[in-house]
Amino acid sequence: MTDIDEQVAVPRCYMTALADGTLVSKTDARIATCGELDELSAHLGAVCAALKKMTETVESIQAEELRQILMRLHDVQRQLFVIGARVVGAQAPKATDWAEAAGPLTTDVAQWIQRDIRFRGFILPAGSSASCHAHIARTVCRRAERSMVALQDQTSVEYLNVLSKYLFHLALFLNQVEGADEIIL
Description:
Blueprint: H1 3-8, E1 15-17, E2 23-25, H2 29-55, H3 60-87, H4 98-114, E3 123-124, H5 129-150, H6 154-178, E4 183-184
Antiparallel strand pairs: 1-2, 3-4
């Protein structure tokens, strides 16, 4: 081994494997994107935990709607796993029609808008704990979306764009359920 070889040797702890076994840097854009998707899923888990707790304290009609949202978010977490698997070249558990996957999110947003839960101006992320968790998930979703743009994965970008819009409206809805006011700038 020459001095040059020793200078470019990368410690194994700085590397990770793609689905096909190819070693890449842990700073590789694909690995970073998977980390962002994982972080988003974890934040969605916090939203789910808050929703579950909320179902115990609200009227039965609202509790049922919150349970539906909870199931929707679990579906989203599964979709994020599929996107991450595709990013690292793994065989996804099943083929996903991203427009179909985004459909229920779009439908929920349209229904919230019909109920006057809509963008009224820029707001400070605040209010209920559940709403704040949804806002955090939204910002992480936007970051993951930007990373997917860099990877030129248009269908995943479109799904994440719909998801971030959904999370914004979800935050507004959760504040409404909890009677928390938005702080409009």
